[in-house]
Amino acid sequence: xxxxxxxxxxxxxxxxxxxxxxxxxxxxxxxxxxxxxxxxxxxxxxxxxxxxxxxxxxxxxxxxxxxxxxxxxxxxxxxxxxxxxxxxxxxxxxxxxxxxxxxxxxxxxxxxxxxxxxxxxxxxxxxxxxxxxxxxxxxxxxxxxxxxxxxxxxxxxxxxxxxxxxxxxxxxxxxxxxxxxxxxxxxxxxxxxxxxxxxxxxxxxxxxxxxxxxxxxxxxxxxxxxxxxxxxxxxxxxxxxxxxxxxxxxxxxxxxxxxxxxxxxxxxxxxxxxxxxxxxxxxxxxxxxxxxxxxxxxxxxxxxxxxxxxxxxxxxxxxxxxxxxxxxxxxxxxxxxxxxxxxxxxxxxxxxxxxxxxxxxxxxxxxxxxxxxxxxxxxxxxxxxxxxxxxxxxxxxxxxxxxxxxxxxxxxxxxxxxxxxxxxxxxxxxxxxxxxxxx
Length: 439
Fold this sequence. Notes:
The longest helix has 51 residues, at 92-142. A hairpin with a 4-residue loop joins strand 21 and strand 22. The protein is elongated. By secondary structure, it is an alpha+beta fold. The chain folds into four domains: 28-42 and 316-429, no CATH class; 47-56 and 229-314, Efflux pump adaptor protein, beta barrel domain (Elongation Factor Tu (Ef-tu), domain 3); 58-90 and 196-228, CATH 2.40.50.100; 92-185. The strands form four sheets. The chain has a six-stranded antiparallel barrel. It contains five helices and 22 strands.
């Protein structure tokens, strides 16, 4: 074999190697596609929110009277029963007021007795003057008593009548004073009783804001001394949910949530109420969703932050489209994409919703209706060719999306959907993630 022939063979081999490096890898201009298989499974669409754990009933215990705290009988985490003494305000001033009110009552009762005696005295004088007047009337007719003496006895009788009326009014006034003083005694007794702070409910003290020796002033409003949670075995989560999410929430929905104290555990609850009172913070409107849950071991405390997941829609045993495949768009010119669309009988815009679109409907078991949307995914066929498929999508869990219907094209379980593009010459590009290749 001649040397020139060997050189020609060598040059041909080098050219073939260069062609392979430039165009031969992965068959499509050096492009390698990341794909994911089309699979069946369940999709759960959830609303994520944060909230605060609270007791079902929390009572703030205050004081209706002012004074110095002399005793404390409850502290943080103390278990109390309704009626238990949990604090004592120094009662000295109120005991003095009560004693003074009782003395005033006794004085008023004595005044009633005096007024009653005056009435008896006035009535006796009335009878005497009346009898004198009647006797003088007979004596005046016989001439034994002058007319002047008769007039004087008449005036005395009328004066005695007026005196009886006055003393009876004084007696009524004295009796009214007794009732007034008795009411003052009741007020003084009530204020004295208020110096003893008692638990209004059975529960656990979760907050204490006073110490012995501290003065509480109740002139304008009752100061809070203790906060008592009624039953920490049954609690609630107040979750802040966005206005766009409350439409899918209904009482009775099962909810899961986590807390920072137990990051590896998931707790369950039930939606009991979606409150209509909105909260607006920086133009963001949220509503309180109340979630009831059991806390038999009292592991969760009031005030903890809960990270809540509320399922609002469910699709069981459906074909799942990877969300990366929905975001992928091939690096082709607009004319090339339109040619592929035309070949697959896809409308020019690809995702335009058509009322006359037909296709093979796929079965789904759904917990709630979802808004359908037209999308285009790209299938990798044998020979590394791309095929667009127009589909109608349903709910999503932010990782996969439900395939409700194939509108244009053909998709089957196991087909490879393109999720990204990797340039073998270095680097990666594409609309989907460029992680490990899934085929």
